[in-house]
# Entry
Amino acid sequence: KTKGEGLPLIGRVVRKEALHHFGSETDHKRDAAYKTKFHFWLRQGSYELQVVVWNRLCEKYYAYVRVGDVLLVTDYTDGVWRVGLGYEHCAMVNPGYRDGE
# Structure
C-alpha cells in the first residue's frame, strides 16, 4: 500500500530529529507555527518507521515525544518511506510517566 489511511501504529521512539523551520523570514515571523516539521522513528519488532510531524502539531508533539516513549499513532496517511501524523492522533502508551516530572 503506498497511499491512504493506515492501521494504528504502536512502537517505541528510537530517534528524534531537531525541529526544522522553513519558509521565508517574513513567513517565519508571521506564522511560525505553520512552517515547521520534525521527524522521529518508531520501532516495532524488527521494523523501523519514520514519522513526520508537520506544521500546527510540531511544537506540541516536539516537546511531547521523547526517545524511549511507546506511542500509539492513528489517523495518518502513509507513503513509501514515511508516515505523516493526522490531526491530534498520537497517544502515550506508557501514561503517568510525564506527571511526576
Summary: The first strand starts at residue 9 and ends at 16. The radius of gyration is 14 Å. Residues 80-84, 91-101 have pLDDT under 50 and may be disordered.
